[in-house]
Specification:
With 178 residues, the chain is of the alpha/beta class. The protein has eight helices and six strands, in the order βαβαββββαααααα. β3 and β4 form a beta hairpin.
């Protein structure tokens, strides 16, 4: 049975990883484990590149922490100014001992009051909590769940990017030369 290490103990990231691997590999059995590792970037990445780097560095840190696994998954949420608004998205990066795959989620615009809180230095999850009067939003439905009236959970939002990051592993014969 293959072991997948998720570079976070956040339940939404673990659930998204389970869903993406399930879609990619069907009935194959995996062991999933979350580990707390640093992203090496800002608590709230504010560019596409910084967010990608956070996902990469999380996956590499998970690989160093648990080197006996088969896959290491880094998921990093970020924001980026776009057209005088603030866009939210995430990067998913998956490593094996020899290869990698990555994908970006869809993006959505944050409402101005939340964007203002993020611009003041709050992490998006904390801005959601403050504005909506909640706690631990990022471990539950997150901004995407709140703003879609729970039509799209945070885990469901990340899962397609996990699946897309696995495409090179699904078709390793055409992605990775021996």
């Amino acid at each position: 049975m293959k072991k997948i290490i998720i570079a976070s103990k956040n339940p939404t990231k673990i659930q998204a990883t389970r869903a993406g691997f399930g879609q990619a590999f069907g009935e194959q059995q995996f062991i999933f484990e979350g580990v707390d590792v640093p992203s090496g970037v800002s608590a709230q990445p504010m560019s596409d590149e910084e967010t990608y780097q956070g996902a990469l560095q999380r996956a590499k840190a998970a690989q160093e922490a648990q080197p006996e696994a088969d896959f290491w998954v880094g998921i990093e949420g970020g924001c980026m100014p776009r057209y005088a608004q603030l866009e939210a998205f995430a990067w998913v990066l998956i490593l094996t001992k020899t290869n990698q795959g990555f994908a970006r989620t869809a993006s959505f615009l944050l409402p101005p009051p939340i964007a203002d809180l993020v611009a003041q230095g709050l992490e998006l999850g904390h801005a959601d909590d403050q504005f909506f009067g909640r706690t631990d939003s990022k471990k539950k439905n997150g901004a995407v769940g709140i703003l879609t009236q729970n039509q799209l959970s945070r885990a469901d939002y990340y899962a397609p990017a996990v699946l897309l990051a696995l495409v090179p592993f699904i078709h390793s014969e055409i992605y990775f030369k021996a």
